[in-house]
Amino acid sequence: MVQQDIASYIYQISGQNPFLCMQCGTCTASCTGREAMDFPPRTVMRMLQMGNLAVLDLKSIWVCSTCLICTARCPRGIDIARLMEALRVINLRRGREVLVAEKIPPELLLKVPQMALTSGFRKLSA
After folding, report:
1. Which of 54, 57, 78, 100 sits most deeply, having the most CB atoms within 10 A of its CB?
2. Which of these, 53, 54, 58, lies nearest to 41 by C-alpha position?
3. Cα distances (Å, whole numbers) of residue 56 to 45, 83, 104
4. Which pTM value belongs to this model?
């Protein structure tokens, strides 16, 4: 994947155009997970606009809980949560899984609700 292609690839997957973002910061101000992110949603959007492939290595795209608050408040109508999902999809298609079943400690399996495990696998593995 070349730098210029990241935005068009995101558009193909999500149907969202990162170039519509005017960098107002509403998404970052609304984000419930911004404290745990390495870069806030606004910066992720700017990295996409600039064609920076390092966006695929950010912790932020995996921390996004897809709560849709940023999407609901975006004045340009961008579904930012869908963009974050598209970035995760690209990583999963490249074989980069965050949650590998064999690496989950057995004692954790006894503590974590099954529904949490199921949604974790849907989001973080291929």
Report:
1. 78
2. 58
3. 12, 12, 24
4. 0.81
Kindly report, residue by residue over 82-125, the tens digit of the pLDDT: 999 999 999 988 888 776 777 778 887 888 887 777 777 676 66
User: Helices 80-93 and 41-50: crossing angle, nearest 10°?
Assistant: 60
* Residue 55 binned pLDDT confidence (cut-offs 50, 70, 90): very high
Task: Identify whether the C-beta of residue 36 lies closer than 8 Å to the C-beta of residue 15.
Answer: no
User: What secondary structure letter does DSSP report for 36?
Assistant: G
The CATH number of 5-95, from 1.10.1060.10, 3.40.50.2000, 2.60.120.10, 4.10.320.10, is 1.10.1060.10
